[in-house]
Specification:
single chain; 9 helices; globular; 202 residues; two-stranded antiparallel sheet; mainly alpha; 5% strand
């Protein structure tokens, strides 16, 4: 199979290794959506990524963000907050972040105990599997990728830890799950196309 030219942004996800989990998850969904026809540029060429990376990912995408106190009347022992929720994040990440948000309120004296934090970064592994699939689709093997992209040797080496044979199957499963999720999103939007709805502010 002849090798096709492949831009670094299409497969080299090594910059994501320094990104927070929430940004990695957004990158994964962005790239899955690209493969499903979103028509968007690679995540690492997006304005969102450039803004986050230029600030060393400080203040970048976060699943649960407090947007200030709400004006709603509350009962005793209650507070009312406006929260911004990033639905691109998996349930576990949102639960963790909401727990962290609650923990940040401990200084108010209203919290009773602290939650445990910390989960493996599965989204980064899936991005690596997508890199493998894209390299293979363009005619590269692990050996030839290392030869053609010597400046990306460290990231290519990280792909050795992943089974190249099963990577395609696992990425396809992830795409099928995302495809079904997008159908549900469209139904919740009254049939409005997900491509314009999800990315209208990108």
């Amino acid at each position: 199979m002849s090798k096709k030219e492949l831009a670094n942004e299409e497969w080299d996800f090594s910059p994501m290794e320094k990104a927070p989990r929430t940004t990695i998850q957004r990158a994964l969904l962005w790239e899955l959506d690209r493969d499903l026809g979103s028509g968007r540029e690679p995540y690492m060429k997006s304005g969102e990524y450039r803004r986050a990376a230029s600030n060393s990912f400080k203040g970048s995408a976060s699943g649960v963000v407090e947007a200030g106190k709400a004006n709603e009347k509350t009962l005793p022992f209650e507070d009312s907050f406006n929260l911004r929720i990033d639905w691109s994040q998996p349930r576990e990440e949102l639960v963790e972040q909401f727990s962290a948000w609650l923990e940040s309120k401990e200084r108010s004296g209203k919290m009773m105990d602290k939650p445990a934090l910390g989960k493996p970064r599965d989204a980064l592994t899936m991005l690596r599997k997508m890199a493998i699939v894209r390299l293979k689709a363009n005619g590269y093997s692990l050996r030839t990728a290392g030869q053609i992209f010597p400046e990306k040797k460290r990231f290519v080496e990280s792909l050795k830890k992943i089974n190249w044979t099963t990577a395609s199957r696992e990425v396809e499963k992830a795409m099928n799950r995302r495809r079904n999720n997008l159908k549900i999103i469209e139904r919740s939007l009254g049939g409005k196309n997900w491509k314009s709805s999800l990315y209208q502010n990108a």
